[in-house]
Amino acid sequence: YETRQEEKLFGRINAGGKVPLGLKRKSLRILVTGGAGFVGSHLVDRLMERGDNVIVVDNFFTGRKDNLMHHFGNHRFELIRHDVVEPILLEVDQIYHLACPASPVHYKFNPVKTIISFPHLHYFLSPMRGYFEVLNCDLRRLHKTNVVGTLNMLGLAKRVGARFLLTSTSEVYGDPLQHPQAESYWGNVNPIGVRSCYDEGKRTAETLTMDYHRGLGIEVRIARIFNTYGPRMCIDDGRVVSNFVAQALRKEPLTVYGDGKQTRSFQYVSDLVEGLIRLMEGESVGPFNLGNPGEFTMLELAQVVQEVIDPNAKIEFRPNTEDDPHKRKPDITKAKRLLGWEPTVSLRKGLPHMVSDFRQRIFGNQKEGGG
Ligand code: NAD
Ligand code: UDP
Ligand code: UDP
Question: Are the C-beta atoms of 329 and 180 separated by less than 8 Å?
Fold first, then answer.
């Protein structure tokens, strides 16, 4: 903003999402790391709609150019193939830092652990060695992205005086002993467990973010995102909603891990994007829980998927993964009070949008069930 007065005025306008008659908002230069991914691409859509200049930095590890193709050719949009683990020089006003290979780890983990859990499948172990090498390689990448990648983006924010928003996760609460989880809860994370690469990586990223804020005066924002679903999710990344939807469409059984009584709270992606923008434009650092407080057991989720896609879909039980959190539900009192934000899309309303997208991507123009 040109003047402090303008900043105050437009800051408030942005937070409320409204521009008063006769006033034109100055467009911003915004960097979205991980912008070719699921959440990132929906965020980019909103920022482009608002008239901002958007630079996406992505290494396409789990993201896809297809998610952003509709912006190609727009002079306000730029896509850079780059790994945030390497430094980069850019001039921007805001940084949404989303880059993080969250899903492949799950998807590499689950086949490995599922197979090892079956004693009669021991003979698989020796071919699985190759899998472990891939897994280790990806885990190193995850650590580097969360730690070095976040450090680089904070260094960039420091050099250009940009506001920095970290997309952290509800996983920082681990297997929570407090329910629902408020931001004041410090969590219950196993530091040496199989999930800790992700959980502890994000906790370190939060620490770095707060240290740059306190020590160097960088303007930062932290979002703790709870399970989010919607169109453009990776189809085979192993997360529960994408698994169930793809399975039901392909006429495969829905794989419920463990007894299916563990709970999660599922948020539709447009609600999350609204929350992220309000957080960036608002006055509070956070951390803020961004999630839908509607809580479902995995069996209830399977039933909703049956209702929406195929009432005859079968359910198959599989061994659960190690250290799986038993319950998760956000306390969003703080986001309601300070950001004026709360989710508006229920699971039953949001799911059909994701189903149409998955149907299109799985079957294309083919006849359903054939592909
Ligand atoms: P996603 O995998 O679809 O998107 C992540 C993007 O980051 C991908 O486009 C990927 O290619 C890119 N990326 C990964 N490593 C990179 C690197 N080193 N350099 C550059 N780009 C890199 O995942 P998503 O669901 O869109 O998640 C976005 C963010 O939100 C992540 O930080 C994730 O941890 C966080 N989050 C998501 C959820 C959820 O339920 N979707 C929940 C909690 C937190
Ligand atoms: N960095 C970057 N782009 C920039 C500024 C910094 O990628 O525009 C990286 C830089 O290479 C460093 C990290 O961010 O590795 C942290 O930068 P900072 O200036 O905070 O630390 P320093 O370089 O002084 O160790
Ligand atoms: N899950 C399941 N079936 C699947 C995939 C996952 O029952 O096909 C369970 C998993 O054990 C966990 C919950 O669904 O209890 C959410 O898993 P996800 O990987 O989607 O998210 P996270 O565990 O990171 O919250």
Answer: yes
Catalytic residue among 107, 173, 198, 212: 198
331-366 per-position pLDDT tens digit:
999 999 999 999 999 999 999 999 999 999 999 866
The span from the CA of 173 to the CA of 188, in Å, is 6
Other CB atoms within 10 A of residue 95 CB: 26
- The DSSP line for 282-349 is SS----EEES---EEEHHHHHHHHHHHT-TT--EEEEPPPTT--S---B--HHHHHHH-------HHH
Cis peptide before 87 (omega within 30 of 0): no
| 215 strand-pairing partners | none
| Distance in Å, CA 63 to ligand 1 centroid | 8
Helix (H), strand (E) at residue 248: helix 240-249
Exposed/middle/buried for residue 276 (C-beta within 10 Å: 0-12, 13-18, 19+): buried
Q: Are 309 and 355 in contact (CB under 8 A)?
A: yes
Considering only CA atoms, which of 302, 293, 307, 227 is closest in space to residue 260?
302
Q: Are strands 263-265 and 295-297 parallel, antiparallel or unpaired?
A: antiparallel
Distance from the alpha carbon of residue 180 to the mean position of ligand 1, in angstroms: 25
- pTM of this structure: 0.89
Report the alpha-carbon distance of residue 344 to residue 281 in Å, rounded: 20
Indicate if ipTM > 0.90. Answer: yes
Answer for the pair 95, 164: CB distance below 8 angstroms, yes or no.
Answer: yes
Cα 326 to Cα 175: distance, rounded to the nearest angstrom = 6
Query: Hey, what are 370's tokens?
Result: 């054939």
Residue nearest to atom 29 of ligand 1 (CA): 98
Alpha-carbon distance values, 101 to 11, 61, 118, 205 (Å)? 32, 7, 28, 14
